[in-house]
Amino acid sequence: MTDTLCNELEIIRPLHPRGHFRFVLFDFDGTLSLIREGWQGVMTGMMVGLLRDLPGSEAEAALTALIQDLIARTTGKETIYQMMDFQTVVEQRGGHPLEAKAYKQIYLDLLWERIAHRVAGLKDGSLDRESLMVPGSETLLQGLRARGMTLFLASGTDEAFVKDECAALKLDGYFNGGIYGAQEDYRSFSKKMLIERILREHQLQGAELLTFGDGFVEIENTHEADGVAVGVASDEASCAGVDAWKRERLINAGADLIVPHFRHAATLLAYLFAEE
User: Helix H segments across 75-170?
Assistant: First the structure.
């Protein structure tokens, strides 16, 4: 049974107690940034295209469903893991897969064709940066910092790209805990590893950690650590209303609250910090 704070803030698990947060972890793409909006379609198109002509492949509709499920299961993980799963799919259909890094580069090149003008427009000022952020993001970040929170940013995207795109949106200054992303040695970083490090180094209890994310991984990792997880079920194309598919996935991962965006940041913060 759920409750609502307003029409667009859904309480899945009431928080008791509230207001004890010290550290806040954010995902980036789809949670704060819309620069990479459409990445799922790019990855799906690439993978289905590579599978289409393999002798053991199904009809295109079945392949599309297969790849969409692969992406759903791995959203929030570093991109290389999605490519490693894709290698298995290729092998199962009688193909000879490339190295995961090669698949990742093909994907990144295709994605760059879609988003290059967005990054350039942010940097030269021809695009309004708020048009490429989940609505209310900066208000939320300001409110958290004003309450003395230490903010971390963690993404499955390569760290150099995350830092560049965060700076292009002029949000990098809010993350006084640091900005983290995928590494060349993929075993050296994950969101779970970062959460465990934050808890260990700062001797946190789970309820002192708050996470915002639109991916299964960061929500599940936070739930497992007894932290509080806000699932951001953002409709990245329209920025209006809840993406029902994301909502279901985030609830299954352990989200305590569901929001579609941060237009009601003041109400959300008042609830989280017991300020009603």
Answer: 79-92, 100-124, 137-146, 159-168
Q: pLDDT tens digit string along 136-151?
A: 999 999 999 999 999 9
Q: How many CA atoms lie within 13 A of 26 on its CB side?
A: 27
At residue 1 the predicted structure's pLDDT band, cuts being 50, 70 and 90, is: very low
Closest residue by Cα to residue 143 from 62, 243, 262, 58: 262
Structural domains in the chain, sorted by start: 3-34+133-272 (3.40.50.1000), 39-124 (no CATH)
Give 6's pLDDT tier (boundaries 50, 70, 90): low
Please tell me whether the overall predicted TM-score, pTM, comes out greater than 0.90 for this model: yes
Beta strands 9-11 and 257-259, pairing class: antiparallel
CA 164 to chain centre: 16
Residue with tokens 């009688």: 94
Burial 36-64 (b: 16+ CB within 10 A, else e): bbebbebbbebbbebbeebeebeeeeebb
Q: Which residue blocks in the chain are alpha helix, DSSP H?
A: 39-51, 60-74, 79-92, 100-124, 137-146, 159-168, 191-201, 216-224, 244-253, 265-272
Higher pLDDT, 234 or 269: 269
